[in-house]
Amino acid sequence: MCRAIDVRQAVLAENDMLAGALREELAAHGTTAVNLLSSPGSGKTALLEPVLTATAARGVPAAALTADLATDHDAVRLARSGAPVKQVLTGGLCHLEASHLRSHLDGWPPPGTRVLYVENVGNLVCPAAFDLGETLRVTLMSVTEGEDKPLKYPLAFGLAHLVVLTKTDLEEAAAFDRAAFTAHVHRVNPGVPILPTSARTGEGVGTLVDHVLAASDGATLHRPALQSAPATADLPKTCTPGPGRHRRPDPDDATAPRP
Ligand SMILES: Nc1nc2c(ncn2[C@@H]2O[C@H](COP(=O)(O)OP(=O)(O)O)[C@@H](O)[C@H]2O)c(=O)[nH]1
Ligand SMILES: [Mg+2]
């Protein structure tokens, strides 16, 4: 048991160190990374599609890197916006780590990219524990997932600078209790802004871009209740990469669909 925690502590400590270096490297290039995390199907890609278009419409060069266990479907969808897009296939790993992101940033995104949106692997557990060197961490949840999820996944919601509620066009049909959701979010992360959005109606898309550009301009962000994942974060063992247990994402797996 003690040994397992030691391994996790070492993995998280190493990741934090790499993430810090990556944050500095991105800043030196004038690029702000935005880490989007949620469970699968919450609507990350659907929201990112209009967000990429809206970011470009403000004259801000943006790119997107999207991670999945398999398929380049999301990259194909996102590339329709005209933004540079890269698909990362994680080879079975359920989250991105700073080293994975770093391995995909040689010569990419194009110089002058001001915002790099990173769509993490769909999962509310493991991605939460790994800092990717982002400036802005956004945790998303849809109205069909249940108001109690912030309480069930306190790390994912407790480390967010911004919480985005998605699919508000379905709010009535899902009988979603927004007041209960808000109370649960603020129990694990007091004061964190909550932004209602819908990729269907466009609600909140412009405001999300406002948040991103403010972060990119160095605005003071909400201070999350948790500053980093506890070293004893409750990671399933399968989340801790180790020799022979997981294949690291291979940069050569990446596809870069052209718009
Ligand atoms: N009604 C509605 N459906 C949505 C919305 N956003 C996404 N979806 C649907 O939810 C499903 C999952 O969306 P996707 O973007 O792939 O989720 P991801 O796995 O988080 O990237 C798809 O069938 C989308 O069409 C929304 O705002 N409203
Ligand atoms: Mg997706």
Which terms summarize this structure?
259 residues; Rossmann fold; disordered C terminus; binds guanosine-5'-diphosphate; Hyd_mat_HypB; nucleotide-binding; CobW/HypB/UreG_nucleotide-bd; zinc
Mean pLDDT: 90
- The low-confidence runs, each spanning 5 or more residues with pLDDT under 50, are 242-259
CATH class: Alpha Beta
CATH evolutionary superfamily = P-loop containing nucleotide triphosphate hydrolases
Largest beta sheet: strand ordering = 3-2-4-1-5-6-7
Main sheet summary = 7 strands, parallel
The run of helices and strands is HEHEHEHEEHHEHEH
- The CATH topology assignment is Rossmann fold
Q: What integer value in Å does the Rg equal? A: 17 Å
- Share of residues in strands: 5-15%
Short description:
The chain has helices at 2-28, 44-57, 73-79, 98-103, 149-152, 154-158, 178-188, 205-216, and strands at 32-37, 62-68, 85-89, 115-119, 136-142, 162-166, 194-196. With 259 residues, the chain is α/β, with parallel strands linked by helices.
Structural overview:
It comes from Streptomyces luteosporeus. InterPro entries: CobW/HypB/UreG_nucleotide-bd (IPR003495), Hyd_mat_HypB (IPR004392), P-loop_NTPase (IPR027417). Keywords: GTP-binding, Hydrolase, Metal-binding, Nickel, Nucleotide-binding, Zinc. Residues 35-195 form the CobW/HypB/UreG nucleotide-binding domain. Residues 225-259 are annotated as: Disordered. The protein has one domain: P-loop containing nucleotide triphosphate hydrolases (Rossmann fold, 3-Layer(aba) Sandwich). Strands 3-2-4-1-5-6-7 form a seven-stranded parallel β-sheet, with helices on both faces. With 259 residues, it is of the alpha/beta class. Helix 2 packs parallel to helix 3 and helix 2 (44-57) crosses helix 8 (205-216). The protein has helices at 2-28, 44-57, 73-79, 98-103, 149-152, 154-158, 178-188, 205-216; strands spanning 32-37, 62-68, 85-89, 115-119, 136-142, 162-166, 194-196. The protein is built from eight helices and seven strands. Helix 3 (73-79) links the parallel strand 2 and strand 3 (85-89). The structure holds guanosine-5'-diphosphate and magnesium ion. Guanosine-5'-diphosphate (GDP) is lined by residues 38, 40-46, 122, 166-167, 169-170, 198-200.
